[in-house]
Design goal:
Elements: E1 5-10, E2 16-17, E3 31-35, H1 37-43, E4 81-83, H2 85-91, E5 95-100, H3 110-123, E6 128-132, H4 136-148, E7 151-157, H5 162-170, E8 174-178, H6 182-196, E9 199-200, H7 209-213, H8 215-223, E10 231-235, H9 240-255, E11 265-271, H10 276-283, H11 309-318, E12 322-326, H12 331-342, H13 348-362, E13 371-376, H14 405-408
Helix pairs in contact: 3-4, 4-5, 8-9, 12-13
Length: 411
């Protein structure tokens, strides 16, 4: 057997599609990849994973690439689950962890989706790919496509961070800046598909980035001894990570690998400057409306409309979780607080999670004894424009009064 995939399935109406073929959206909505979980249960036990390389590809049976096909990889390992006792005490929690995706090859969790999706693209014979991106996804696709020898077109809002622009360009992508938001870039990708012959790699518009992202959930369960925390906070733009982990937890529960069938409460964290999922959750809506005038320095959260909105909202509600908007004005404060206390390179998107977490603790929605995991989806050093910094300068032509250094240092 080359793969345990049985079929692909419309997330909206359940229509079944054949595996092993190129698929995008079905009737405008995303697809699930479904597996023969009974066959997987008979083939492998969770303890056998310990004998494999600590990489997301250790979960090959739960991934869509045929077992006899070599993946397109940059050596992505398991991201560490780091206990954060000082930050936990600052927030009033006994057990706080950060799962640090910043240590993946392209500096963000986007490596997960791209290693799987590009592996499938190459296997299925695609040669030209296109993506709209406001941040890390474009660079990650460019890197993995370069590894695979595929051609890539990247469309970015013109104010996309310079590092994201450079990353995609240096990896050989054809990069274009657009005077609009990510949804405007997505429109260009759609409009050019027929004439340019590229495949749309937008979030959830192909089914395999989701499968890569779900490995965050598989790793988390393994790292916690096949248990799961009570609360999981995740910064939500396109929502693939949140949706993917909820899928992973359901698959693990059906496989019987979890020691406790209880699943985490999912908290979708968005910025008050772009919060379509929060607004839809609060209104009890199934779908989210376009968020007007979307603005946030957390570029991964600047997604005013998401094709997987209903999938996010279902996962949040099924988990008895919530969607909350954090304060845009406190992003840098939370980045520095977390990095000062724990040394973890926290991105602006995950800083929003900490602001949300503080609010939920104050409201007693999250309780001090609960196990809480926050996902850090990228490295702080990929966001230099977010922080406006003026450090004190020392003039070597003058005598240095070292007793004054503490007063001069930026606090």
């Amino acid at each position: 057997m080359n793969s345990f995939v049985t079929h692909l399935e419309s997330a909206l109406d359940g229509t079944r599609l054949e595996p092993g073929q190129v698929h995008g959206l079905h009737r405008g909505r995303p697809l699930w990849v479904r597996y023969d979980l009974d066959a997987i249960r008979r083939t492998i036990a969770p303890e056998q994973l310990l004998q494999r390389t600590p990489s997301l590809w250790r979960y090959r049976e739960l991934l869509p690439l045929p077992l006899d096909v070599e993946p397109v990889t940059l050596g992505e390992g398991m991201s560490p689950l780091l206990p954060c006792p000082r930050l936990g005490r600052r927030l009033g929690l006994d057990q706080l962890w950060i799962k640090d995706e910043s240590q993946l090859p392209t500096g963000s969790f986007k490596s997960r989706g791209m290693t799987v999706a590009v592996s499938l693209a190459k296997h299925l014979g695609l040669t030209r790919l296109a993506i709209p991106t406001a941040g890390n996804a474009g660079g990650a696709l460019a890197a993995y496509a370069a590894r695979a020898g595929l051609e890539v077109f990247v469309f970015m809002p013109e104010d996309t961070l310079l590092i994201n622009q450079l990353e995609a360009w240096l990896c050989g992508a054809k990069v274009f800046l657009v005077n609009g938001l990510i949804n405007d870039c997505g429109r260009l990708v759609r409009e050019g598909a027929d004439s340019m012959g590229w495949f749309d790699f937008s979030t959830l518009k192909e089914p395999y980035r989701l499968e890569g992202k779900k490995t965050m959930g598989l790793e988390l369960a393994e790292q916690l001894g096949w248990t799961l925390p009570e609360v999981l906070l995740y910064p939500t733009g396109g929502g693939t990570g949140l949706i993917g982990m909820w899928k992973a937890f359901a698959e693990l529960r059906e496989l019987g690998w979890l020691r406790d069938s209880r699943l985490p409460r999912l908290v979708s964290c968005q910025s008050e400057g772009c919060a379509p999922i929060v607004r839809a959750f609060e209104q009890g809506a199934e779908f989210a409306e376009l968020f007007p005038n979307a603005r946030t320095v957390a570029s991964g959260l600047r997604v005013p409309v998401a094709v997987g909105d209903f999938m996010m909202l279902r996962a949040i509600r099924e988990s008895d979780g919530c969607a909350v908007a954090g304060s845009e004005s406190r992003i840098v404060e939370w980045m520095r607080t977390a990095m000062t206390l724990e040394g973890i390179s926290l991105c602006p998107e995950s800083a929003i999670c900490l602001d949300v977490l503080e609010r939920l603790i104050a409201q007693q929605v999250v309780r001090p004894k609960e196990r809480v995991v926050v996902f850090n989806t990228g490295a702080a050093q990929k966001y230099p424009e977010v922080v406006s910094l003026k450090l004190p300068r020392l003039d070597l032509s003058q005598a240095i009064n070292f007793a004054e250094l503490l007063d001069l240092a930026t606090g």
